[in-house]
């Protein structure tokens, strides 16, 4: 019996100079959307003084944007697959720039939150397009891995550099400047994008399922709201009821997607261990990153008393470490299994949180700098490898769905970072705060609400005892929150070890 030899597989075509130039243009919305997730961390003290938001409004100012982003990414991924990913990218960039200009001059906290919601809507049109376009622009595996490494590094580093950008701008301009920066960043995309980026669509796109959209928004939004409400007001009947609705909506969404002939999101992708494991690593890594930035930026400004620019410079070494790790891990993974590379990277992040947890209430600025360098090394490596595995674990036709799921995990992780870790910090701060004798009731109420309120009250009344008590209570919360962050990173490492051991090298 004779056998016919298999024909050699044709090599994938290499990317052209136009594709690499297109990648550079695509990095602009990636950086902007991720910067916008954390840029308010440094602006929050100034916004608090100008607009007087409550503790709940402060959390919503930060979380409204990534929450809306997370709930709409799957929907916008489907829209991009249908109408064209480049077209959706340019529509979203135009809307994002316009709303950013309006947000810069919001007169109240409520209107600023509304602007952040609108930015989330347009941001959701930007992100699914970028990663899915990379999948079609870079067909060669090694070139695509480098492109994804650049994308993932830009995404993670953008979140880390957000506070730095905020610090530089706030040193010279009004707090609204952190929003106006979107305009000059997006202009090159709008001008060069039509020439450098090739249009792509899914030949068999999922239909835009309005009921599915509503169910996904109810599931993700309800889960985040119930966690946030519990963190601020404690567990009550309202939080439980919303959580139950969120779970039921999530179950309904999954069942609807499974029954659909051409679903908006192919939930069967989650049955692939590498895909679901890499998504979980993404989620937990970003929770750790954004939670860290939430409390460290406040510690530097409100406990150490550093001005925004000086405080932002403390984070620069960590940003550099994150970028370097994201690019260098591409070489490492040629010789080391992806799962081991991710676990090794997350070991650095675990050490970062352990360093702050062991520091107790005596955290120093050099400790924060070192901790962020360690965290950046871990997050940079983990995000690059996990995003590459997400794309390669599914067929090319599913690139839009895979990228939408990846970015949903990222943005929902950003929400949970401030909601869970930020809520835990707030709870410990309030339980640890001791109001000194003689403090007037208005100052005491402000101090119980937030550390920013305590600082403002102390500046108004000269009550140094209140200020020192609030700072000590805040750092007690940092110690507890850092312990929780270490547990999250350890969980991400365990997931990576179990699910990514057999991933493609």
Task: Explain the overall architecture.
This protein has 505 residues and is an all-alpha fold. It folds into two domains: 17-209 and 260-499, MFS general substrate transporter like domains (Growth Hormone, Chain: A, Up-down Bundle); 210-259. Helix content is 79%, strand content 0%. It is built from 19 helices and no strands. It has helices at residues 17-38, 40-51, 55-83, 85-103, 109-137, 141-170, 177-180, 182-196, 210-233, 237-259, 273-303, 308-313, 316-332, 338-359, 365-392, 399-432, 441-449, 451-461, 464-499. Helix 3 runs antiparallel to helix 16 and helix 13 packs parallel to helix 15 (365-392). The longest helix has 36 residues, at 464-499. The radius of gyration is 23 Å and the shape is globular. Mean pLDDT is 80; it is low at 1-9.
Short structural description:
With 505 residues, the chain is mainly α.
């Amino acid at each position: 019996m004779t056998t016919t030899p298999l024909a050699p597989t044709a090599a994938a075509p290499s990317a052209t100079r136009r594709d690499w130039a297109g990648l550079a243009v695509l990095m602009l919305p990636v950086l902007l959307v991720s910067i916008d997730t954390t840029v308010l961390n440094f602006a929050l003290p100034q916004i608090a003084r100008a607009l007087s938001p409550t503790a709940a409004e402060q959390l919503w100012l930060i979380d409204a944007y990534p929450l809306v982003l997370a709930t709409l990414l799957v929907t916008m991924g489907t829209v991009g697959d249908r109408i064209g990913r480049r077209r959706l990218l340019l529509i979203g960039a135009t809307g994002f720039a316009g709303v950013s200009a309006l947000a810069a001059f919001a007169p109240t906290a409520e209107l600023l939150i509304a602007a952040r919601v609108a930015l989330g809507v347009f941001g959701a049109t930007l992100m699914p397009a970028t990663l899915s376009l990379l999948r079609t622009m870079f067909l060669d595996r090694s070139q695509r891995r480098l492109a994804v490494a650049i994308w993932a590094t830009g995404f993670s580093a953008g979140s880390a550099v957000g506070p730095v950008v905020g610090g530089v701008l706030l040193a010279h301009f009004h707090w609204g400047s952190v929003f106006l920066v979107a305009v000059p960043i997006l202009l090159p995309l709008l001008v060069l994008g039509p020439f450098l980026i090739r249009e792509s669509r899914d030949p068999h796109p999922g239909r835009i399922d309005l009921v599915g959209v509503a169910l996904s928004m109810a599931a993700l939004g309800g889960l985040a709201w119930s966690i946030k409400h519990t963190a601020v007001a404690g567990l009550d009947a309202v939080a439980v009821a919303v959580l139950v609705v969120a779970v039921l909506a999530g179950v309904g969404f999954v069942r609807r997607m499974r029954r659909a002939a051409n679903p908006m999101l192919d939930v069967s992708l989650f049955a692939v261990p590498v895909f679901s494991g890499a998504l979980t690593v993404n989620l937990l890594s970003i929770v750790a990153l954004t939670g860290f930035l939430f409390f460290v930026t406040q510690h530097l400004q409100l406990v150490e008393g550093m001005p925004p620019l000086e405080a932002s410079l403390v984070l620069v070494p960590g940003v550099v470490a994150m970028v370097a790790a994201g690019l260098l891990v591409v070489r490492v993974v040629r010789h080391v299994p992806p799962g081991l590379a991710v676990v090794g990277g997350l070991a650095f992040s675990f050490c970062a949180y352990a360093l702050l947890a062991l520091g107790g209430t005596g955290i120093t600025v050099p400790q924060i700098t070192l901790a962020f360098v360690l965290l950046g090394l871990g997050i940079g490596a983990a995000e690059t490898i996990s995003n590459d595995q997400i794309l390669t674990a599914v067929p090319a036709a599913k690139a839009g769905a895979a990228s939408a799921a990846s970015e949903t995990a990222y943005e929902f992780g950003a929400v949970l970072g401030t909601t869970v870790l930020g809520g835990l910090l707030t709870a410990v701060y309030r339980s640890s705060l001791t109001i000194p004798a003689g403090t007037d009731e208005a100052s005491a109420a402000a101090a119980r609400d937030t550390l920013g309120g305590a600082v403002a009250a102390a500046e108004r009344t000269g009550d140094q005892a209140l200020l020192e008590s609030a700072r000590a209570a805040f750092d007690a919360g940092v110690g507890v929150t850092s312990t929780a962050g270490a547990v999250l990173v350890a969980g991400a490492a365990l997931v990576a070890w179990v699910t990514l051991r057999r991933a493609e090298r």
